[in-house]
Amino acid sequence: MTLVERLREKREDLRPMVRRFKRNKPAVLGLIIAICFLVVAIFAPHLAPYDYRVQDLERRMEVPSSDHPFGTDRFGRDIFSRVIVGTRTSVYIGFTATVMVVLLGAVIGIGAGFFGGSIESVLMRITDIFMSIPSMFLMIVFVAVFGPSLFNTIIVIGLTRWTGIARLARANTMAIRNEDFVEAGLATGASDLRIILRHVLPNIMAPIVVQASLFLGQAILTEAGLSYLGLGAQPPLPSWGNMVSDGQDYLTVAWWQATIPGAAIFFAVLAFNLFGDGVRDALDPKMKR
Amino acid sequence: MTNYIVRRLLAIIPMLIGISILLFVLMNMAPGGPEMVIIGDLERYSPSLVAHIREQFALDQPIHIRYLRWLGNAARGDFGVSTTQAGGVPVMQMIGNRFGATLQLTGGALLLAVIVGVPLGIISAVHRYKLVDQVATVTAFVGICFPGFWLGIMLILLFSVTLGWTPISGLAPSGMRDVLSARLHYAILPTITLAAVQVGRYTRFTRSSILEVLQTDYIRTARAKGLSERVVLFKHALRNGLISVVTIIGLSLPFLVSGSVMIEMVFAWPGLGRLAVMSIQRRDYAVVMGIQMVIAVAVLMANLIVDLVYAMIDPRISYS
Lengths: 289, 320
Known about the structure:
The structure holds two protein chains of two kinds. Chain A is mainly alpha-helical.
């Protein structure tokens, strides 16, 4: 079979799922809003009417107007431009952290499920330990180790939130591990790596993709939370979380400063969650109620 | 039963050792290394004092020796002293002063979220696809998408700044902390905020778990033999459906505690989460380490309680 044929076959496989997704109106709406956020994130520097760093001390804390649709902050910076650049921060972290979580969780989960024995017990004990420390506290420790920065936010979210995917991957791998075709593969002398890549991975992909799409919104929420605490993106780089934190100090005089970036977080999470739920219902119709 | 509880308590010990090893190694990797964990900002001290402290705390020893020393002290409830508080306040004392505030906040929020979320899920499942179900489902979904810290700020903006009904932040003025009404007044907004982000989860899980039970054969049998819908629901469906709800509530505890960190920061609530964030910013690692261990113990104990609640509501489960 040539590669083209194989890809065509794959597309045939996906067709009923795409159809199910399209019928799910909230999910499609979520996807559309999510794509809008993506576009804003990609073209942020071109879309922002002002430089997000430029201060205009003459025009501090201005109410929203035609010049500054979302008003200005305490340095006279344009909040509209900062929300746009903040979109890039949040969406970028959302996707990269999700990839990190899935990679780490899948490697640990498949490793535990495939090899079993002492490898499994060690890996699962580590998973239990990570699960019994509330993730926000664990993140605080990791931030202390690596220092707060945009890049480290990805690492920190990855290192603390992989446990769910790991348990899922382990359970699914164990089920596949006992299938005849895996036994046959091992009997013919195929290497472990080959069996994992060729047989295990394709068969456990669906639930992992579902979890990953459900995690996107979570990742954006987590990044916003870390930035709010001052442990994520560092000023002057705007992130929705640190903008809310800045705005909270001026709540009585400039309500828009905390309100608008927070609303952006809410709508982004809503969009990605709608999309994630849609992916789950499309890939795994049994889950739908 | 007693046997089971003792066994579970013993099983917590290796978990705690694992957690403490992980955290100890991490804290030692933090900038400044082991010195920071014990003495804090080195530049503030004279070299001779640093040398003295290094010797006293055996910082020249390899990490496993230092860990064992820490473990020995921790087992006796001694997590060392804060390095940023004047006079070296014991970490345990700082934690003790704030534990109650965190317990009040998370406990209150858990109670509120269960009282609202679980009945809403039941009503939703019983009236599946009706208007009330759709409203509850949408509300639950939207609730999950709120960043807790922003929701808190919006509630402050509405109820404290605009309407002036509730205080903006804090636990209560220092003289009023023993007055129940004052504490409740201050606790309203933080508790509602922390509960709000959980309610949706509980509603969704309760709904799907009750729906699953309602589709089983024994429910059909109960209906077929002419039992009233009320008896079917309360005597047959709820008992079974709520077992998995208890599981979810148990699993959500770490998330609740994570959420409390944010809420404590928003409302300047003097709890452990706020102390942890501020200690990290001050690089007061002994305090951070102590808080993590106390939180881990609390979560593990809460999980044990959840398992015991199982046995109470499900006679099929017996621990012996």
